[in-house]
Design goal:
- There is one protein chain.
- Helix 5 runs parallel beside helix 7, helix 7 runs antiparallel to helix 8 and helix 7 packs parallel to helix 9.
- This protein has a four-stranded mixed β-sheet with strand order 3-2-1-7. Strands 4-6-5 form a three-stranded antiparallel β-sheet.
- The protein has two domains: 85 residues, Winged helix-like DNA-binding domain superfamily/Winged helix DNA-binding domain (Arc Repressor Mutant, subunit A), CATH 1.10.10; 139 residues, Tetratricopeptide repeat domain (Serine Threonine Protein Phosphatase 5, Tetratricopeptide repeat, Alpha Horseshoe), CATH 1.25.40.
- The protein starts with 8 loop residues before the first strand and ends with a helix.
- The protein is 58% helix and 9% strand.
């Protein structure tokens, strides 16, 4: 018996929603997009829970009816089911999501099993911009922190390998993503110090100090200031 060939579907949620089959975008109703997005960020949802998350302002029966309609529309959209399960729903394994790729890549960067500048490109893009559901907002914040941790880890590894130019670019991405995050600025300053760019390290510290003072009325930690001061003394 010849095994059935799986059709590759790619669900993109970072930077906006898109469902692709073999590189071609598939138009889908709004309810279908919401269902696929939910199951991409919250796998294995019970039917009642999925209905309540997707239609929180509807009554239970109406929400369940909306879910049945969304599933019916989805099954008409593709020749293979993209959602499986009866009482518990999940994305089929024929669907690859950029959110899963981001999480896997970030995990490898944080635990040190990957150090490749090209890995950083999968960390970009905000989750479903323009969507304001509570479950989207919570997942967007989680992914933001995961992305920051991964970028900082990648910058640290690149600095340790003396790939300072690459480390600076990665750390700058983290700083731009969260200017108030000291660990991101630390990664950037450390890369500058590794490259013996002491003036740039001091400038970055001053910029960070000004931002903290303006936005929060606080100063950088003494550890960060000592890091810059110690290296500057060694340089002198």
């Amino acid at each position: 018996m010849v095994p059935t060939q799986r059709v590759p579907y790619h669900l993109r949620l970072l930077g906006g929603f898109a469902l692709d089959r073999d590189g071609r975008s598939l138009p889908s109703p709004h309810s279908v997009r919401r269902l696929l997005a939910l199951l991409a960020v919250h796998p294995q949802r019970a039917r009642a829970e999925a209905a309540g998350l997707l239609w929180p302002d509807s009554g239970e029966e109406r929400a369940r009816a909306n879910l049945r309609t969304a599933l019916w529309r989805l099954h008409r959209l593709t020749p293979v089911p993209l959602v499986t399960g009866d009482e518990r729903l999940a994305l089929s394994d024929v669907v690859e999501t950029d959110v899963a790729v981001l999480a896997a890549t970030a995990g490898r960067l944080v635990d040190g099993t990957a150090v490749d500048l090209r890995a950083g490109h999968v960390l970009g893009g905000e989750l479903l911009p323009g969507w304001y559901d509570d479950w989207v907002l919570a997942e967007r914040e989680r992914l933001r922190h995961l992305r920051l941790s991964a970028l900082e880890a990648l910058a640290a590894r690149l600095t340790a390998e003396r790939r300072f130019g690459e480390a600076i670019q990665v750390a700058l991405t983290a700083v731009h993503l969260e200017p108030l995050r000291e660990s991101a600025t630390r990664a950037l300053i450390t890369a500058h110090l590794g490259e013996h760019n002491y003036a740039e390290a001091v400038r970055r510290l001053e910029v960070f100090r000004a931002i903290l003072d303006r936005e929060l009325g606080v100063r950088p930690t003494p550890d960060l200031e000592r890091l810059v001061r110690a290296d500057a003394l060694l340089a002198g």
